[in-house]
Specification:
Blueprint lengths: L20 H8 L4 H27 L7 H6 L6 H12 L7 H18 L8 H18 L16 H26 L4 H15 L3 H11 L12 H26 L3 H9 L4 H16 L1 H14 L11 H10 L8 H30 L6
Length: 366
């Protein structure tokens, strides 16, 4: 036998780093020549725009609430936010009662945040919502515990925006779920009725729905009978959001293989047992991005209620600027401020949607 000689193996290249800042930059910004070219073009545009934007927004900006100084400055006037802050946030709500609006908004936000925590998904959460909403309306409307009464047409600003968005989204989801199931029903009457509802609502803009709810609907009521404008507007937004959300949910229902439904019928499960235990859990998990997109859209669409004299955040800002001619030229700073508020809420909902997707997709990673 010939003696075996030891031969060294050539060194292998180091593994490619897939984590960290440099790996992310290489993968997302300089992955190939097209990506690198796009990064260079966008970078050049930002380099051209950022310096003048920085000078306008920060370097030459005015932060004091003095209109004369703002008119003489060459930059942004953020002092208008300090001057009109309470008017923008609380709108026409009586100035001396702003503490009630602040407390009511805090209670409602606390309920929303609590509802987003998985550990709090208990039966007592529904009781908390009932108690929290009762406290909200008692504080905002008054007339009890010695609080002065404030009519709903004076509710405005951020408290009204959060109220309309949270209640409309909460009530629209079960309606959309029923409509989506109805559109896939085997009963022609129910399927036709749900189809007509969806096509009718989606065929008109939200402004038309609000106009009908605020001005036309009272004409159909018996003489001497009226429904509060806030209730009518809330019902209009809810029905409008439910129609769009129903189509999102129906897409998830159609994605469930028919074999699973047939297997459930073979096991003797009823229709509602099949929907509750097999179909809906999978369908809703698949349409989380679409449902959250509907929520975000509804939150932003609350700005349209200004056409029916309910001044939410955007309407309150417009009133704040129009009421004082000295601050009227600085309207853009006010719009940027409320845009920041909208962004914070919408971005938070988007991140929460990603968290829910990770939770519902854990079963697929096993």
């Amino acid at each position: 036998m010939s003696a075996q000689t030891f031969q060294t193996i050539a060194p292998r290249p180091a593994p490619v780093q897939t984590e960290g800042v440099l790996a992310w930059v290489k993968s997302n910004l300089f992955n190939d020549w097209k990506t690198a070219l796009g990064t260079a073009v966008i970078g050049a545009v930002l380099l051209a725009l950022l310096p003048p934007l920085y000078r306008w927004a920060i370097a030459n900006a005015v932060w004091v609430a003095d209109s004369d100084v703002c008119h003489a400055a060459s930059g942004a006037c953020w002092g208008v936010v300090r001057e009109k802050f309470r008017f923008i946030i609380f709108g026409r709500y009586p100035f001396e009662e702003h503490w009630r609006a602040l407390l009511s908004t805090t209670v409602l936000l606390a309920l929303i945040i609590t509802s987003c925590i998985r550990a709090c998904w208990k039966p007592w959460l529904a009781a908390m919502w009932v108690a929290g909403l009762a406290l909200y309306f008692c504080l905002m409307r008054g007339g009890v515990l010695g609080l002065p009464r404030v009519d709903t047409d004076l509710w405005s600003g951020l408290p009204l925006t959060i109220l309309l968005a949270s209640l409309s989204m909460t009530m629209a989801f079960p309606i959309a779920l029923c409509i989506a199931l109805g559109r896939r029903s085997g009963m022609p009457a129910i399927r036709s009725l749900c189809t007509v509802y969806v096509e009718l609502i989606r065929g008109v803009p939200l402004i038309s729905v609000l106009f009908m709810a605020s001005f036309m609907f009272p004409l159909l009521m018996p003489q001497g009978f009226s429904i509060d404008v806030l209730v009518r507007v809330l019902a209009g937004i809810t029905l409008f959001a439910a129609a769009y959300m129903a189509e999102v949910i129906r897409g998830g229902l159609q994605a469930i293989p028919k074999g699973q439904i047939e297997a459930a019928a073979t096991l003797g499960l009823s229709y509602w047992q099949t929907q509750r235990k097999i179909v809906l859990p999978q369908a809703l998990a698949m349409v989380v991005p679409g449902v959250m997109n509907s929520f975000i859209s509804t939150f932003k669409d609350t700005s349209l209620v200004a056409i029916v004299s309910l001044y939410e955040l955007t309407g309150a800002m417009g009133m704040a600027m129009n009421a004082d001619a000295n601050w009227r030229p600085f309207r853009i700073e006010g719009y940027l401020f409320i845009a920041l508020i909208y962004f914070v809420f919408c971005f938070s909902m988007s991140r929460y949607s990603l968290w829910i997707e990770k939770q519902v997709n854990k079963s697929k990673l096993r």
